[in-house]
Amino acid sequence: MRDEAATTLGKVSDAWLVGRARELNAAGQHSDINGQRNTIREADALLVEARRRGEPRIVAQLLRHCAALRLGTRTRVDSADPLLDELLTHTRRHGLDVLKADAHALRGRRALLAGSEDEALTEIAGGLAILDDELAPDRTLGQRSWERLLATSLIDIGLVLTQLGVYEMADEVMARAHHRIRESGGPHEIAVHMINRCRMLLSWGLRLERIGQQDEAGARFATASALAVAVEGPWRESLFPRLSELSAAEQMPVLGAAHALAGPRFEHIERLEVLRTLDRTMAPREEILVAIALSRCLISADRREQALHLLADTRSGLDGTTSSEPTLHISLAREHALLLRSGDGASDALRDYARDLETELWTMRQARLSTLVTRLENERLNHKHDAITRQALQDPLTGLSNRRALDDRLENLLTSREAQPLAVALVDLDGFKGVNDRCSHADGDDVLRTVAGALRDTLRNDDFVSRYGGDEFVVLLPGAPLTSAEAALHRTVRAVHGLPGDLSRGVTLSIGVVEMRPHESAAQVLARADAAMYRAKRDGGNRVSAFAGSAESTGERPVWIPPGEG
Fold this sequence. Notes:
By secondary structure, the protein is α+β, with helices and mostly antiparallel strands. Helices cover 68% and strands 6% of the residues.
């Protein structure tokens, strides 16, 4: 059965893999624990298929969905760690900046689940610094898909900022997400954004109440309620599982809570009680928001004792989950304490104590915001410094390493015992001059970028790809015997040959690959790779030509001796 499933997945498109992963992510948020496990299992199978295909953007998106599903499943949170590490490494390797920022956001969320607020601040600063740059859309993904990924990254960052209680910055980030969604988002992205902004406003309003800013809190609740009304249309066309005869506010706890907090009245009670018993797992933040909203509606109906029991039971049921939503847990405790309070002097003293404590907590919140701003500035400076360093060693057209970086890396590898055997390949484009003649130099530049991406995407993480000049590239494959290097480069040749004509303009690759010899210098090994490349050209191009040294021809591997020794 598993083999049949793998065969079926092998027949679907990349777009289907990503689309199905998005559906599973939406379903996982509205499932019970068994449903969540099933969605994780299916998403993992999609990731296996994506890895088999090897397209970096598809792999990154599947890694993101699989990690996010685990972060939303209480019993599987720890298993997200290796996926988050892989996502960050993978996006760095392939220059996928938007998904790299999202990796930082999800790692920040994971840090909060582990109770590490300081680590979460660092991760969010890293993600924001990436998105502060003027990022160019990914041509391979297309403008709309890239905009959606950018909006998702901003939303994920906004959620962590909300959990940290840094609401002003969360509001700014979500406003940026709104701009991207307005340009390219579909109904699902619009619904997700509106629901998350609603959640942020409710948390913000409860926090403002705790420092006595009732009018400001009421304004946040009113805006959240208006969003809960506006989301009904996009919700009905979203990927979320739903019952068509019920409104979004009758199925989404945060939306039902928004209406009740904006105007606590008797008519909200039945709906909120139903929301508390939904046949799915509820996140702690949802349980808290619904409990506070329901308790206020019960009080408005003179059912104070029922409200007390509700808040006490909610606090007891959420014991041990305070790390991920600390500010909401405090709001829940405050709501409970207000109902328990009597009218004697001791209560007045307790109220004064609570006010002083809230003032101190607000001061700590401001310190947290200052810490985040400082780290963000540091990350921006580091990002700028890294960019300057990269520019000195990077080809501006393709984003690959330049000739200077190649010279440095090749010299280091030639003198490194761990890099042996070392294969060196020279890559030249067949038919590239015709592209410039038939089309334009701008089209030629696009072809060079496309080929550079194919080289980077089809080779190993440890392989070094550089632009040598013009339409020539050099690849260093440390630790790869000549036969293995030849096989890897054949995959690259096939990948470029199989590109759509509007991307490749019909060019193919001629590649010459050699294995470094004892005592050989960088210039000598590159000259042999060049000769091998010209043999591939003479044989018709679109192929790999491997030159073996005399020792290899007898089946023996040469003893490695660094240049200048022996």
